[in-house]
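worker-03 picked up job from queue 'complexes'. Input manifest follows; four sequence lines, order preserved.
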Amino acid sequence: MTAPVPATTEPPAPRRSRRDSRRPQLLDAAARRFRRGGYSATSMRDIAGDAGMLAGSMYHHFPSKEDLLVAVHEEGIRRITKAVEEALDGVRGPWQRLEAAAAAHLAVLLDGGDYAVVVIRELPHESAALRRTLAPVRDAYEDIFRRLVDDLPLSAATPRHHVRLMLLGALNWSQTWYRPGGEAPEAIARGFIRLLRGEH
Amino acid sequence: MTAPVPATTEPPAPRRSRRDSRRPQLLDAAARRFRRGGYSATSMRDIAGDAGMLAGSMYHHFPSKEDLLVAVHEEGIRRITKAVEEALDGVRGPWQRLEAAAAAHLAVLLDGGDYAVVVIRELPHESAALRRTLAPVRDAYEDIFRRLVDDLPLSAATPRHHVRLMLLGALNWSQTWYRPGGEAPEAIARGFIRLLRGEH
DNA sequence: GTCTATAGCAAGATAGAC
DNA sequence: GTCTATCTTGCTATAGAC
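worker-03 finished. Artifact:
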């Protein structure tokens, strides 16, 4: 038996019932549907059907459709934050760090599945719960990029918020034109950073 | 009386009944609602109410909700194309032309009302009719920027599609963070173009 | 934990009076 | 051209059997 050590990694993880085994599948199905059709156009029947159950059964796992959206958002932000922080680990040089973060952001957004796309595209105007609960978490994520841009060696006259907004806008918009099999996320990120550095 | 000259400007304009006077108001209301709440979450009753009529009455003007969305898109693309072409008129110098187009695009998107926002954000995954009918028109609009980027004096090694995608992505994404009263669209466009030119 | 069954409601759309 | 009234369908969510 493992002694009750003070856990530093792996936070307590909200205690749910012993075997809420279908919850991840429901969340996956929801993320996929929300991505493809949007939140409003997706029905609980759609999601339940994808997970192999009937609509009524979902309410054992999630109390409402809105809670489902919040859960997808939480998971999406968790994944994208983790990916970016891991990509930054050990990288030195301000431009190199910005490029690493951009590449990781893009990789999760374009190849990392449905959660991140929902976070980026399904804006919180859908739900008041989303705004209240998740706006701070989103802001915390954007702060990573704010700090990376602050570290760049730019002239004092260059408005740094333009750099951040331009890069994040270009990255986030990419999910509208990207098609799997095209240019790799790392290549796109490298290209965008090169342009920002004025190399052309 | 005007003789039936072969019209070159002002295309025939789909003949509707003599006094379809409420149609513009309905279209305005729809654009506003689609922008704020999204297409799926907006009901015909919402739109009709905003225009001061009941839901059933709308069907005298538009045969379906989807037709309403298509009409909003058409009008939005028309406005944004017109604004950019007018902004380009008489401007010389490849970077100056790109900046003028970017500023006009941004001005319509941020201060120009609801139509353009719907065009940009309410992507055609909503409706098969949108994809078929309007994808070519959207592509034609993007071609304006493709040509402007082709005219830039860049080294042969610079991938020009990165320039176009980065700029349009940054511009289109701006409607997620822009707040009226902040930096003017022209200033944002100028800042983005300066970054692309490598001036920092 | 999933099912059947259904309550309760709002949606898009139509018919016909005025 | 707008109204009233309504049809039909689909939705979220709940209750209770198994």
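worker-03 released lock.
The interface with chain B takes residues 36-38, 40-41, 123, 125-126, 154-155, 157-159, 162-163, 165-174, 176-177, 188, 191-192, 194-200 of chain A (CB under 8 Å).
The CA atoms of residues 84 and 101 of chain A lie 5 Å apart.
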